[in-house]
Amino acid sequence: MTNDTWGHVRQDLLKAVGKNNYVTWIEPLEFDALEGGVARFHVPTNFIGNWVSRNFGDQILTHLTRSGAVVDRVEFKVARSGAAHAAAAPRQSVSVATAAANGAVAAKPATARPGSELPGAPLDKRFTFDSFVVGKPNQLAHAAARRVAEGGQVSFNPLFLYGGVGLGKTHLMHAIAWQLQLDRPDLRVVYLSAEQFMYRFVQALRENGTMQFKELFRSVDVLMVDDVQFIAGKDSTQEEFFHTFNALVDQNKQIIISADRAPVEIKKLEDRIASRLQSGLVVDLHPTDYELRLGILQHKVDQYKASYPGLGIQNGVLEFLAHRISTNVRVLEGALTKLFAFGSLVGREITLELTQDCLADVLRASDRKVTIEEIQRKVSEHYNMRMSDMIGPKRHRTIARPRQMAMYLSKQLTSRSLPEIGRRFGGRDHTTVMHAVRRIEELKAVDNQIAEDLELLRRMLEA
């Protein structure tokens, strides 16, 4: 048997097992030799060798036989660095007898080496630490992610990153995985979304593969789950996630989680899971400030210079964009991409006038719209209180006064009606909101501290 034969067999396996399974499990195999009826393959890790042997060994053996190769058994072993053969490496084998008895079964993997294309969860090559622009709003999250990416023991587990859309959570998750791949290729890393975790669990239930699912997820070194708020309300998935979480923590394996809000603020998330998620380091990626947005734009311009040589950009354009598009970094970067493409097509320097014409729709859509939830969060952070107290029943002055200020700002900065504002504050009556507005109006006229707090909060919310 030759490498050409194995190449044809690989194509047959691609059709048989599907692209996702092929990329994850078959593609890493390297044909070594066929001797005495034994086809030997090199694998990157023992884990992959074991998994392929159990779940795809029969199919490989069947397709090799169909290709005309005289094969009785296939073996998988880890090759030593720089050596074609690794006699000391453990071997996993499948025989013809086993294949004939069991038939071919295609597994549904949920993990892979970092950087390989997980089903539904490929890593984006753009999202590395080098391309992440650090500023005050994301400084702590970046430092924590860097620490975890070193691959050693850390004092916080899990690392929980949360924040709104386009603030860099997924970028940091991918950056951690890429760095681990570079520095610690021996580690088994899983990166996937909570939705994909649920899908795999449901699939395992349907195919009676829950034991394989448990073994697979609990054998990893680093588990990374994006958008964990998705499993809230899914009881069976939450149950399995909780046990997987505990099993990995007990083994001192690192867990990194992201969500759009803090654990205690995720509705329908079980209390025991929220408590576990808060047991490590919980980091908020704050909305970007003007300086950070400007830094991101300058970084992108430096990248674009190679693609658009000779295309000039007038002073003040980046500052204008950083000021006008403030809610979402993805929109900000997309606007700059559109601007450079347009300037290149029409052969004109990127001026402020061209920017306003080209991005008229984006600028209109990005006009600042403050939400009640954002006001509640900012006021809670300012007064160092929990979000749950903001909308809860407690009436102590240290809670009631900030709640009244949040109601006042909701009336001033949003177009919501009094009854709607009341509902968003724990189902309170509109008369409660009216009272809060009047009370804060009275207090800000005589209490300088309240007046200063209101002005500070307003500036932060309208930034």
List the helices and strands and how they pair.
Layout: H1 3-17, H2 19-26, E1 30-35, E2 38-43, H3 46-55, H4 57-66, E3 73-78, E4 91-95, H5 96-102, H6 139-149, E5 159-162, H7 169-183, E6 189-193, H8 194-206, H9 210-217, E7 222-226, H10 235-250, E8 254-259, H11 271-277, E9 281-284, H12 290-307, H13 317-324, H14 329-346, H15 352-358, H16 360-365, H17 372-382, H18 387-391, H19 397-413, H20 418-424, H21 430-446, H22 448-462
Parallel strand pairs: 2-3, 5-8, 5-9, 6-7, 7-8
Antiparallel strand pairs: 1-2, 3-4
Helix pairs in contact: 1-2, 1-4, 4-5, 6-7, 8-9, 12-13, 12-14, 17-19, 19-21, 20-21, 21-22
List keywords for this structure.
463 residues; alpha/beta; 5-stranded parallel β-sheet; 54% helix; globular
Strand content: 5-15%
Number of helices: 22
Q: Low-confidence stretches at least 5 residues in length (pLDDT < 50)?
A: 81-90, 94-120
Oligomer: single chain
**How would you characterize the largest beta sheet?**
5 strands, parallel
Number of strands: 9
Which structural class matches the secondary elements? alpha/beta
Return Rg in Å.
28 Å
* Shape designation: globular
Quick summary of this structure?
This protein has 463 residues and is α/β, with parallel strands linked by helices. It has helices at residues 3-17, 19-26, 46-55, 57-66, 96-102, 139-149, 169-183, 194-206, 210-217, 235-250, 271-277, 290-307, 317-324, 329-346, 352-358, 360-365, 372-382, 387-391, 397-413, 418-424, 430-446, 448-462; strands spanning 30-35, 38-43, 73-78, 91-95, 159-162, 189-193, 222-226, 254-259, 281-284. The strands form 2 sheets. A 5-stranded parallel beta sheet has the order 6-7-8-5-9, with helices on both faces.
